[in-house]
Amino acid sequence: MFSKVKVKLLVGLAAVLVVAAILFLWHGTGSNDKKPTIMASFYPVYYFASEIAGDEWKVENLTPAGVEPHDYEPTPSQMMAIEKAKVFFIIGDRFEAYSENIRKNYENYVFLGENLMTIKDTEDNHDADPHVWLSPILAKQMVEKIAAKLSEIDDANSAKYRQNAKRLIAELGKLDADYRAGLANCATRDFYTAHSAFAYLAQQYNLTQNGIAGLSPDSEPSAKTLSKLAEEAKQKHITYVFFEENVSPKLAETLAREIGAKTLLLSPIENPENQDYFEAMRANLTNLRTALECK
After folding, report:
1. Do strands 190-193 and 208-211 pair parallel, antiparallel, or not at all (unpaired)?
2. What is the pTM of this model?
3. Count of CB atoms situated within 10 Å of the CB of 236
4. Which residues of 273-290 are buried (b: 16+ CB within 10 A; e: fewer)?
5. What DSSP character marks residue 35?
6. Predicted confidence band of residue 22 (pLDDT cuts 50, 70, 90)
7. What is the DSSP letter of 205?
8. Are the C-beta atoms of 295 and 185 separated by less than 8 Å?
9. Are 271 and 68 within 8 A, CB to CB?
């Protein structure tokens, strides 16, 4: 049996451990809260911002995992978080449904797609195709914009941000070289995809995108449009139709059935599963090479 002295010692030790644990948790949370916050509208923006910011910032992705960012509306608490953040990085031009609200009511935003969206779309409500991050060349410019803004806000760590951006730009340069080499010698340069998200990628590597839906993955083509696409795809001997994650594959499967083709994933990298940006881009290259029968 324990003596009263031993019991008191054990009680005292337990109290010390509890206080130490509380202080540890409080200190850890407090130090994290002291970091300035970056808000990012969706995954590619979040990825680039995180890689550039390093440990100096707390970076938050506004769009939840598995959610399609085109139509996502932030919660009231997220809108408050945007307002409190040092900076909010966003593609803009209505890619995010709330981007005009941000433009009208906030000042701490950077539209990363501004001056990069050069491909116009006449069949969609968008003024221009916003999917600029799918071109490694345009992604470099996004990285430069993020690094420039963080350097402006935090000049003391500017060299670190510039160095991190330089590393990312070098990786994007290698990715561009891999795409150029991998897509140089292919049996066809036409590809069919459910969501017309790949115009910049196609332009960069001399490919032709044929989208079943428009820039918004939720748009539905008419039966006449689908029939026309199927006829064209048959004439071009298309053997694969691309679908994407986070969106129903029904359109791709319907067209594939009509022309006797298979389906493959081509990710718009808006919310990839279990891959970072570079992994997803290289998986896209592998699947493009398969569909286009590249040597």
Report:
1. parallel
2. 0.86
3. 16
4. eeeebbebbebbbebbbe
5. S
6. very low
7. T
8. yes
9. yes
Distances (CA, A) of 109 to 36, 94, 114, 126, 290: 15, 14, 12, 20, 40
The mean per-residue pLDDT over the stretch 88-108 comes to: 93
d(CA 101, CA 254): 37
The label of the residue with tokens 């992705």 reads: 61
More confident residue, 285 or 67: 285
- The residue whose two tokens read 């070289």 is 177
HSE of 228, CA atoms in CB hemisphere, 13 A: 8
Q: How many residues does the chain have?
A: 295
Structure token pair of residue 278:
């570079």
Q: Which two tokens stand for residue 225?
A: 């449009």
Residue for token digits 């081509």?
266
Tell me the average pLDDT of the chain.
88
Whole-angstrom distance, CA of residue 237 vs CA of residue 112: 38
Strands 58-61 and 87-90: unpaired
CA nearest neighbour of 119 among 108, 111, 109, 127: 127
The residues that bridge with 140 in the sheet, in sequence order, are none
- Indicate the SS3 state at residue 50: helix
